[in-house]
Amino acid sequence: MITQERPDTPLAAAGRKPVVNDPDNTAWRWPVFDAEDKAAVAQVLERPGRELYAEMALFEKELCEYFDCRYALSTNNGTAAIHSAMHAIGLAPGDEIITPSYTYWATSLAARLCGAIPIFADVQPDSANIDPADIARKITPRTKAIIVTHLWGMPCEMAEIVSLAHRYNLKVIEDASHAHGAEYHGRKIGTWGDAGCFSMQASKLLPSIEGGFLLTNDSDLYAKACALGHYTRVPADHDWANLNSTGLGYKYRIHPCATALARVRLRKLDEQNRVINRRVEKVIARLEQLHGLRSFPVPSGMRRVYYQFEMIYDERATGIPKQKVIDSLMAEGARVAHERYPLQHEQPVYRRSEFWTRPPEPPASLPACEEIIPKIIQLPTFATCKERVVDEYIAAFEKVWANLKTLAV
Ligand SMILES: *Cc1c(COP(=O)(O)O)cnc(C)c1O
């Protein structure tokens, strides 16, 4: 049952019953593991020692089938996959890699592990993804590669980015940790660059609690990624195969229980994305009718997924501060939040020269991301809740908007 009240009745903040009846916060509940997931993990624990790792090869084969690519290398987390990709493309001390600032720290900070320098690019305001025009401006003779993040599940402009990379002979790494199952012009995200890196940390769309993987069609890149963190796995015909007794000093092998869980979750990924997309799109269709609220438009040719669901609130259009709107939504039981990623170019680690082969010199300002982030309202993705809760969130927004004038100071 949705609210019986008219949308313009006084807000719950003023002492009425909240519109959203979700005391256990099921709107945000993720991940939820079912009996099949649990059985897959339990099965691993029953195996004799030498068979404990049997599922790793199966999982990697299934990844290649799902993503339609030649090589998949599972890792103990997404950060390890990114480090492996950077190493495997030959990123070397002093090299520059162009990266978004608006992303999780692993995207840009992994460059440090190769002695390389992250160069921060700004975003496109319509997607909050890295801006190809700003990438082009930041290319120097030292630039070796570009890493992009498909932020919150929205594909980056891969055709433009890949063609820019070809023009300047740069490698492209995709951090696809938010975008399991997304597509760009019919091809899976994570297979557009030289390497695609994915996290399977618990919050991600393909959760193995901890875990990750790297995808590539390049046999040399794959072999070098194996050498970094997977001793014994360099293919015999590769020049680095004689490193197989040691590797290069890291150990990035995935946990067998995580592999078992990931195999089951991969089979459910498309259906789960369909549920999330349908619910989020239903919310967007209604909330975009509200003055001063809009979503990130999905360009044609892109199939985005929702690792996170964000809308943009323009307080100049309504005259009501975002914090007041959030407080009112929360009082109605709709749990919404400000954006959560700190911008990388503002972080102290990039300003402490002792950790770098040469000081990174991050930009003082990246105006487009600094402008968009304060406007973001983060909503749940409704991945596992009852449909009723989705409708109640819509009702809560409509009620707050019907009362917006009463929030003016
Ligand atoms: C989660 C995440 C990572 C890191 O993955 P871990 O598995 O936590 O190491 C990297 N990049 C992005 C964009 C992420 O969201």
Description:
The protein is of the alpha/beta class and 409 residues long. It is built from twelve helices and 14 strands. It has helices spanning 35-45, 54-67, 78-88, 105-109, 132-138, 158-168, 219-229, 256-287, 315-318, 322-331, 367-372, 387-402, and strands at 71-75, 96-100, 117-121, 143-149, 171-175, 183-184, 187-188, 195-199, 212-216, 293-295, 302-303, 309-313, 337-338, 376-379. The strands form three sheets. Strands 1-9-8-5-4-2-3 form a seven-stranded mixed sheet, with helices on both faces. Strands 10-12-14-13 form a four-stranded antiparallel sheet, covered by helices on one side. Helix 6 links the parallel strand 4 and strand 5. Helix 1 (35-45) runs antiparallel to helix 8, helix 2 (54-67) runs parallel beside helix 8 and helix 3 (78-88) packs across helix 7. The relative contact order is 0.18. The model has no long low-confidence stretch (mean pLDDT 96). Residues 77-79, 103-104, 106-107, 149, 175, 177-178, 199, 201, 212 line the site of pyridoxal-5'-phosphate (PLP).
How would you describe the shape?
Answer: globular
| Portion in strands | 5-15%
Q: Rg to the nearest angstrom? A: 23 Å
Structural class: alpha/beta
Ligand kinds = pyridoxal-5'-phosphate
**How many β-strand stretches?**
14
Low-confidence stretches: none
What separation lies between the terminal Cα atoms?
33 Å
Total of helices:
12
The helical percent reads 25-40%
Residue-averaged pLDDT, rounded? 96
Task: Report strand order across the widest sheet.
Answer: 1-9-8-5-4-2-3
Oligomer: single chain
Order of helices and strands: HHEHEHEHEHEEEEEHHEEEHHEHEH
Sheet with most strands: 7 strands, mixed
